[in-house]
UniProtKB/TrEMBL annotation:
The keyword Oxidoreductase applies. Residues 231-444 form the DUF6537 domain. Residues 206-216 have a biased composition (Low complexity). The lineage of its organism: Bacteria, Pseudomonadati, Pseudomonadota, Alphaproteobacteria, Rhodobacterales. Keywords: Oxidoreductase. Residues 202-227 are annotated as: Disordered. InterPro entries: DUF6537, IorB_Oxidoreductase, Pyrv/ketoisovalerate_OxRed_cat, Pyrv_flavodox_OxRed_cen. The keyword Signal does not apply. It comes from Thalassovita aquimarina. This is Indolepyruvate oxidoreductase subunit beta family protein. Residues 15-184 form the Pyruvate/ketoisovalerate oxidoreductase catalytic domain.
Length: 501
């Protein structure tokens, strides 16, 4: 950066990744170093899917005649930082990366775009082509898995993006000044890890492959070493998920529970309480009810036996069990392959539907035809892993787990509230959709900002109030009031805080 020309930075992230926090860190560090700064942002339209851009220009304080722009210009950006590889491709395609001027820093992590997901075959973009383009189109490029570094250090990708930018050495202030604006140890750890990774790349070393970190198995503590209540919950969870899907799915639950256990202080009763509830909610969430699950439960022999006992069926009497079903387009889409499910949901969003749905039908589940029809539906569980809803639920679970790990390690009170958050995802049809809306708002407005800023302890009460409001009012009026900072209404249920004993 010359005395007059501003230093121009373009940040490209996805909604919910802390891009605004990253922008604020850069602005604060630059101003603390005596520079003039101007920043602006264009938010994405959807959490975790909408592209969000932040643009910053930095001019020295003495450059009084420097004119700072509100928007980036193609070919005139000094540094581009991206949280995802195809985001880097998007920025390059828009012309913001120049081989004469631009340092490009991008995470190699992937969040598949809608265009990739709706393709009938393999619609994924060729990552190798993006890497080759980055090497040719940027003056300097640093491509590394910033998401993995964030996970390893219990922080968000915004901290590792900041560390990679500072480690590249292109900013007009030094590392120590940059680091002082970070408010918590986790952000600092992620920052330091990214700085070290970029500096190794500058020295000619290849970045560590993500596969190396992923191949390192999660700790697998013996269940006998866990507190009684936690051990019981995990045992029931394993049984439930074997029954729901198969042994492999139960092992996925075990691996996820192990990650939570490794993040918690088992000597703190509050952390154990939060951990136990989190493992219980995780098992219930992973065993969400879809068409296949409902059909399976309705045709189990023990159900018919229970009904016979309840009606006190006598010898010579005939029992007819009639199910009332009202399939909706959303429920059909849930069990179909991802591309087809997405298309159906897009049609529903436009006000359309699919034929023969939304009507009530009667099926005799203990009759030959009705029973075989329901058993055929139950057999669709073997397709569940490739289904639209499975992909959506697993993505949401992984997002919740990352926040849960951070909360267990640093704020048991916040972790207790976060463990209760999946409670709002309940019911079917419109009820479930309203629950998903409330869940997304709480994650967006409370959970992710608190975890990114390290303010979980200060936010625990707000989180509990918001969950209580979401459970009390399906119109979301009470939730909106709590999110706006108003005290919760008296009728909102109180989520108890686990106190010291």
């Amino acid at each position: 950066m010359t005395d007059k020309a501003p230093f121009r930075i373009l940040l490209a992230a996805l909604g919910g990744e802390g891009g605004g926090v990253l922008m604020n860190w850069i602005v604060e560090a630059a101003r603390a170093s005596g520079h003039r700064v101007q920043a602006t942002s264009v938010p994405g339209v959807a959490q975790r899917t909408g592209s969000t851009s932040y643009y910053i220009e930095i001019a020295r304080k003495e450059a009084l005649d420097a004119v700072l722009s509100l928007v980036p210009m193609p070919g005139r950006v000094d540094a581009v930082v991206c949280s995802e590889l195809v985001e880097a491709a998007r920025v390059m395609a828009a012309g913001f990366v120049s081989p004469r001027l631009t340092t490009l820093i991008s995470s190699t992590a992937r969040f598949y775009s809608t265009a990739e997901k709706i393709a009938m075959g393999d619609g994924r973009y060729d990552e190798a082509n993006v890497r080759k383009a980055a090497e040719k189109m940027a003056r300097d490029s640093y491509l590394l898995d910033l998401g993995q570094l964030a996970t390893e250090n219990g922080t968000f990708v915004s901290a590792t993006m900041y560390g990679a930018l500072c480690g590249s050495g292109v900013l007009p202030f030094d590392l120590e000044q940059a680091r002082t604006v970070l408010g918590d140890a986790r952000s600092q750890a992620g920052f330091d890890a990214a700085v070290a990774a970029v500096q190794r790349m500058k020295d000619g070393a290849a970045p560590e492959a993500p596969e190396a970190a992923e191949s390192d198995p999660a700790p697998r503590p013996d269940l006998s070493d866990l507190p009684d209540g936690l051990r019981t919950v995990i045992g029931h969870g394993l049984d439930r998920l074997r029954d729901y899907q198969d042994d492999a799915y139960a092992e996925t639950y075990r691996a996820r529970a192990n990650l939570l256990i490794a993040s918690a202080d088992l000597s703190d009763h509050r952390a154990v309480h939060a951990l136990t509830e989190a493992c219980r909610r995780l098992a219930l969430w992973m065993a969400y009810e879809d068409v296949a699950r409902v059909a399976d439960l309705k045709t189990r022999p023990e159900r018919f036996e229970r009904i016979r006992d309840e009606v006190q069926l006598q010898p010579g009497q005939t029992l007819t069990v009639t199910e009332y079903l009202k399939p909706r387009a959303e429920e059909i889409a849930d069990i179909l392959p991802v591309p087809i499910g997405r298309r159906i949901m897009a049609r529903v969003a436009r006000g359309g539907g699919i034929p023969f749905t939304g009507r009530g039908i009667h099926v005799r589940s203990n009759g030959v035809i009705g029973y075989r029809m329901l058993r055929t539906m139950a057999a669709m569980k073997h397709l569940r892993r490739r289904s639209y809803r499975f992909a959506e639920e697993q993505r949401a679970i992984e997002d919740w787990l990352m926040s849960m790990q951070a909360a267990l390690a640093h704020s048991p009170d916040f972790a207790m509230g976060l463990a209760e958050l999946p409670r709002v995802l309940k019911g079917y049809s419109d009820t479930l959709q309203r629950g998903k809306t409330a869940y997304a708002r709480i994650m967006q407005d409370i959970v992710r900002p608190a975890v990114a800023a390290g303010t979980e302890a200060d936010t625990a009460r707000w989180l509990r109030d918001a969950i209580g409001a979401a459970l009390a009012d399906d119109s979301h009026a009470k939730l909106e009031a709590v999110l706006a900072g108003q005290p919760p209404a008296p009728e909102i249920p109180n989520l108890k805080r686990v106190e010291n004993v």
